[in-house]
Every structure is written in structure tokens, then in C-alpha cells.
């Protein structure tokens, strides 16, 4: 089921709970160099600390792909590498080009979707957006951020600099963040995938942000509400309201 027709929508809301302190730096610039780590956590324009929805989506996709590949190597492509992406294979690419020039929008969308791997169908690929939307997760309540000392590392030698300490900001363990996930038009198999993904987010085995090797970043999801709207219930509701068939 593609985008032009509504079939179903699942909205999952809940909280992400920090099992460790979390540090998501406000800049990824030079993030591979430990001495250049940006020391404040990412915040929105109003100063609210946030875990970007794209970070949660990214780490969820990474895990999902690794499971899919374990079952069947071809069920998850490498979307980041043009040559290894499912919709970039020569015959598929040629047909997409042909449909883009001569086909209808629906034909193009249907063909691209059918030729996509399981991961791209759900999370999005080079030809279309995915079926899952993760909203940014804002910190709940008035939490006092903490600071930690880190030890600077000499750029040339890689050795610790005894006097080159730097401070970095962390969101303390136990902090809670808003969680909102919207899934649209999932087929039966994809609904099972979604349940699997949610269970994994609930397991507390995922980490987000920087300094994960220093024991930071683990979080778990607590689902507070799972709302399912499908076309049949929507039709019934409209019928009830209007007292006639729609
Ligand atoms: Zn793919």
C-alpha cells in the first residue's frame, strides 16, 4: 500500500528513559577527534535538550538491517552506497528512469516500492520516504544538566594530556524524553516488524549519542499508548456520524 491511499496508521507514544547519562553533542564537527568534542548537549531554540528523531531512526534501522541480513542477505541493501542500493541495480534503475520519463506517478511509485528491499520499504530509500516517522524526543520536565571532566588527548601523539581537561555536559541518568512514532500504511509483515522494533527499543540494549564507550547513552522505551486507525474503523466512524454510507 502506497501513499496516495490511506489504509492504516499506528501512533506509538511513550517515554524514553535514560538508563545511563546521555550526551548528544550540539555539533558533529570533528566528532572523531576526542579533543574537539563539543561540550554542550544538543538543544532546540528554546534551550530544551533533545534527542533527534533521526538518531533514534538511524540506530533502529541499523539494528533492523543487521537482523534482516542475518535471515536473508538480500532483504536489506546498503542504502548509503550507491552501487549497493536496491533501487540502483542497472535494470531497476533503467526502468525507474523510463517510468519517470514516460510512466504515471503511480506506476513509478509502485515499481520503486516493489523493487526495494525490506529495510528501504519501511525506513525509506533513495526513491521514496519511509513509512516510519520518528519525532524529535524532547526532555521532559526541568532537569538539571550535569558536567563531567574528560581528559584531553594530544592531537599528535594520542597520549593523554594531564592538564588538558575539558568539561562536558550530560543529561543525567533517569531523565525522560517524549517519544512519538508514526507508522503509515504498513502491511501485515511490516506490522510484525514494527512490533519487533518496539520490543527492541523497550529492551534497554540501545545507546544513543556520544561517549558510548565511556558507558553513556543507554536508554529504554516505555510505551504509554498505541493507537491504531485503519480504514475500516474510519469508515464505520464516518458512517455513524453522518448516518449514511460514505
Ligand atoms: Zn534497500
Question: Secondary structure elements and their pairing?
Answer:
Elements lengths: L7 E11 L31 E2 L1 H19 L18 H13 L2 H10 L3 H6 L8 E3 L2 E2 L7 E8 L6 E11 L5 E9 L3 H15 L3 E2 L10 E13 H12 L4
Antiparallel strand pairs: 1-7, 1-9, 2-4, 3-7, 5-6, 8-9
Helix pairs in contact: 2-3
Bound molecules: zinc ion.
The site of zinc ion has 9 residues, from helix 4.
- Under CATH, the topology can be stated as Alpha-Beta Plaits
Largest sheet: 5 strands, antiparallel
SSE-based structural type = alpha+beta
Q: Identify the CATH architecture.
A: 2-Layer Sandwich
Order of helices and strands: EEHHHHEEEEEHEEH
Estimate nothing, just give the exact number of structural domains.
1
- Portion of residues in helices? 25-40%
Q: Please give the order of strands in the largest beta sheet.
A: 3-7-1-9-8
Distance between the termini: 21 Å
- CA gyration radius, whole angstroms: 22 Å
How large is the count of helical segments? 6
Number of strands: 9
Mean pLDDT: 85
The top level CATH class name: Alpha Beta
Unreliable sequence segments: 28-38
- What is the strand content? 15-25%
Shape: globular
Task: Give the distinct bound molecules.
Answer: zinc ion
Give me some keywords for this one.
246 residues; alpha+beta; Alpha-Beta Plaits; five-stranded antiparallel beta sheet; 9 strands; 30% helix; binds zinc ion
What does this 3D model show about the protein?
- With 246 residues, the protein is an alpha+beta fold.
- It has one domain (8-76, 117-242): Alpha-Beta Plaits.
- The chain has six helices and nine strands; from the N terminus they run E-E-H-H-H-H-E-E-E-E-E-H-E-E-H.
- The protein has a five-stranded antiparallel beta sheet.
- Strand 5 and strand 6 form a beta hairpin.
- Helix 2 (90-102) runs antiparallel to helix 3.
- It is globular.
- It starts with 7 loop residues before the first strand and ends with a helix.
- The model is unreliable at 28-38 (pLDDT under 50).
- Zinc ion (ZN) binds next to helix 4.
Amino acid at each position: 500500500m502506497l501513499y496516495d491511499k490511506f489504509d492504516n496508521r499506528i501512533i506509538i507514544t511513550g517515554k524514553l528513559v535514560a538508563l545511563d547519562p546521555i550526551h548528544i553533542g550540539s555539533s558533529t564537527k570533528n566528532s572523531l577527534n576526542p579533543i574537539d568534542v563539543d561540550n554542550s548537549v544538543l538543544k532546540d531554540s528554546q534551550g530544551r535538550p533533545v534527542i533527534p528523531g533521526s538518531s533514534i531512526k538511524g540506530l533502529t534501522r541499523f539494528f533492523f538491517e543487521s537482523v534482516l541480513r542475518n535471515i536473508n542477505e538480500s532483504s536489506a541493501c546498503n542504502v548509503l552506497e550507491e552501487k549497493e542500493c536496491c533501487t540502483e541495480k542497472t535494470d531497476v534503475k533503467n526502468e525507474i528512469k523510463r517510468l519517470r520519463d514516460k510512466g504515471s506517478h503511480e506506476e513509478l511509485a509502485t515499481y520503486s516500492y516493489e523493487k526495494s528491499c525490506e529495510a528501504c520499504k519501511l525506513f525509506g530509500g533513495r526513491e521514496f520516504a519511509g513509512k516510519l516517522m520518528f519525532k524529535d524526543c524532547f526532555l521532559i520536565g526541568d532537569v538539571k544538566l550535569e558536567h563531567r571532566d574528560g581528559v584531553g588527548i594530544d592531537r599528535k601523539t594520542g597520549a593523554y594530556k594531564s592538564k588538558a581537561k575539558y568539561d562536558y555536559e550530560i543529561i543525567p541518568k533517569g531523565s525522560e524524553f517524549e517519544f512519538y512514532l508514526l507508522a503509515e500504511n504498513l502491511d501485515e509483515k511490516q506490522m510484525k516488524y514494527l512490533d519487533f522494533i518496539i520490543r527492541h527499543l523497550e529492551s534497554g540494549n540501545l545507546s544513543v549519542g556520544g561517549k558510548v564507550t565511556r558507558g553513556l547513552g543507554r536508554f529504554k522505551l516505555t510505551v504509554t499508548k498505541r493507537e491504531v486507525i485503519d480504514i475500516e474503523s474510519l469508515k464505520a466512524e464516518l458512517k455513524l456520524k453522518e448516518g449514511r454510507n460514505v
